[in-house]
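Reviewers asked in the last cycle whether our approach scales beyond single polypeptides. To address this, we selected a multi-component target totalling 464 residues and predicted its structure end to end. The input consisted of the following lines:
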Amino acid sequence: MTNTRPGSYVVHTATFEGPLDQLLQLAQQGQVDLETIPLAEIAAEYLAHSRRAFDVEEATETLWMLAALIELKARALLPHPPPVEEPPAEEPGDLQELLEERLATYRVFKDVATALRALESYQQRVFLHPPEEPAGPLLSGVALADLFRAFQEVLARVPDRVEEVPPQSITVAEQMAAVLALLADGVEGVPFEALFRAAATRLEIVVTFLALLELIRLMRVRVVQDATFGAIRVYGRAARDGGGQTGGAGDD
Amino acid sequence: MDAPLGTEGVRPEEPGMIELEQAAGDAARLHERDARVRETARAIECILLVSGGPVRVEQLVDAAQVPPEIVVAAVEILMQEYAARGLEIQTVAGGYQLATRPDHAEVVQRFLGAAGREPLTQATLETLAIVAYRQPITRPELEAVRGVRSEYVLERLEERRLIRVVGRKATVGRPILYATTEGFLRYFGLRDLADLPPMAAFGMIHPAAPEE
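The resulting structure, written as structure tokens, was:
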């Protein structure tokens, strides 16, 4: 049940070859000994891979899966209490039946998913007034990739030097407040780069970017790019409670 | 306005006259109701335009200050009138909404400079289908059907406001229960959950579904 897209990252190690989600699944089922899998190498390899072909969606999933693997491995490396008694294996006949039943159920849902897909594609071609207000994040003309590219440009300004871990860490909440304060003054908006202090450290830039993403999610800012590869401007928005009076799509 | 004071009892009317007057009164009332419905229809049209989302009958009743049956009749008129227009009135999430017809999606997108919308991934859609038909459902129950861990997909669905936490199941570990949101109904243009595509009975063999 793994979904491997063409060009997506494949793990190559001495003991395992295949997509990362499969590795995670096998590790979760205990079918792969994580102690033999060098996770640091996989992470480094994925980083190299993502420099060639970057996909935000894939990167997000990969990050999540690697984190899950690290957690599993950390648990495996810790001394653990005696193993819990395995429940007695089920009769092969029952198992067969169970599997078939499960497959049948799954197929039914696959069918309704197809029906829902048709409804989705109808409704995706339908527009309301005001366009997209309650549903979409307020990105106009900006794809996530554009935002990410701009982020990388800012990040590239920082000299690549080893840093000491600052004694006080910056939190996303702090940076959210800082970004909002910056946007509070003008209706003019602020160029994307101005969100980051010239002397900002890598950590500060990353946290500020996370803060910006969070503000977009909370619909507190609008991000506008007028031309492809053009300058990205960020505008503040008044705080709103809920999604207006239209009944609120799960605003709770 | 009719039946002026003092005329009653003074001069006995012929029966035919009374019937005629009643018929005239009925016609006048009908005419009045018709005018009221049409005016309400115009007002509702305005509300649907500015709301940008589904509006329930109760909300229309409150705003237009007319009884529900007038609202319903008015919406029917609007729906007929819009049959030949670029806009349509959809029945979504328990309300009515004014929306562009999908036939003109390309033109609208070109005008807005908006990119086509990203459909849900197959895994996300399947997960959402299971939640929709089995709600409220816990993650272990969901995973039993899908056969894979579904933490990430559930998180994404919650983030997109298509599902939400509605409580905890009263079993061991008190697992979180998920259900679909009103946003889910809007996303698929469904009137309510009963409007979901019918699901084949469990274990039923699908003759026209060749699976690899």
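Residues 131-137, 239-252 of chain A have pLDDT under 50 and may be disordered. We regard this as preliminary and will revisit it once experimental data from Aim 1 are available.
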